[in-house]
Amino acid sequence: ALVAGVCGQPIIHSMSPILHNAWLAGAGIDGAYVPMGPAEDRFEAFVNGFRGGVIRGLNVTIPFKERALACADTASDLARLAGAANLLRFHADGTITADNTDGPGMLGAIAAQAPDLAIAGCSAVILGAGGAARGAAAALLLEQAREVRIVNRTVEKAQAIADALGDVATAHGEAELPALLATADLVINATSLGLGGGDGPAADLSLTPKGCVVMDMVYKPLRTEFLARAEAAGRRTVDGLEMLLLQAVPSFEAFFGQAPPADVDVRAIALAHL
Ligand code: ATR
Fold first, then answer.
1. What is the pTM of this model?
2. Which of the listed CATH numbers 3.40.50.720, 3.40.50.12780, 1.10.3720.10, 3.30.43.10 matches domain 103-238?
3. CA of 31 to the centre of ligand 1 (A)
4. Which atom of ligand 1 is nearest to the CA of 128?
5. Active-site positions?
6. Hey, which bits of 140-225 come out as E strands?
7. ipTM of the complex in this document
């Protein structure tokens, strides 16, 4: 059997095993996709133990994405630019390669749900500066966004991302948010605020221009308080579930050697598990 998995801490709530195992069953592949929760201080030993191709690969989630990149021998441009990896592949020669599929997943979600937004030349505001924000910022940069403004409670973390990305990306404190929203074409919540039904980030989305697109990376609940406020302000919205589904596609291809079967309605399956 072909085996892959996802590791994070905690891992119990991960949706990835549900998605990948539904695809495996639909495609009739002899494989398994397993959730794993390594101890936080043993992550490197855990990853290195898979060298040699015992398993095909791992997806990596909170809080290990930065450390996952450091474990790899080589990494894609996007993963290096992001400073974070959510996909590790284990090769037969003992090497590990790293990639980041969060960024392409985010771009794909925007293309699907707000297709007329041009990323090239746009002004984007990213709320948050954790691993999710890193992938988003790097992907927007590679797609030629004009400005990537990273706003975070802890400005130092936003500054670290901006420094790695060059002039297009800038770091800001929450006090600057109203002015940044006023010229934004795209606003993305990459904080954990709103998860489980709480209030999202305190951003007055009615300050954004009319054509602005508002995206939430939080997908539980699907219609977050943040997205509800965006809709109330008349803004187009992109939900986090689409990004979750799309980031899983290149991982499935990397692990199992073929595209996910098109006849499995993975969005419906995910919705049933929210
Ligand atoms: P992820 O990997 O999903 O990005 P993370 O690295 O834990 O998760 O990042 C969580 C983000 O949500 C951070 O930007 C965090 O802000 P800090 O860097 O200041 O900690 C943000 N966040 C979490 N709780 C918050 C709160 N109550 N107010 C403002 N920001 C918050």
1. 0.95
2. 3.40.50.720
3. 35
4. 14
5. 65
6. 147-151, 169-172, 186-189, 213-216
7. 0.96
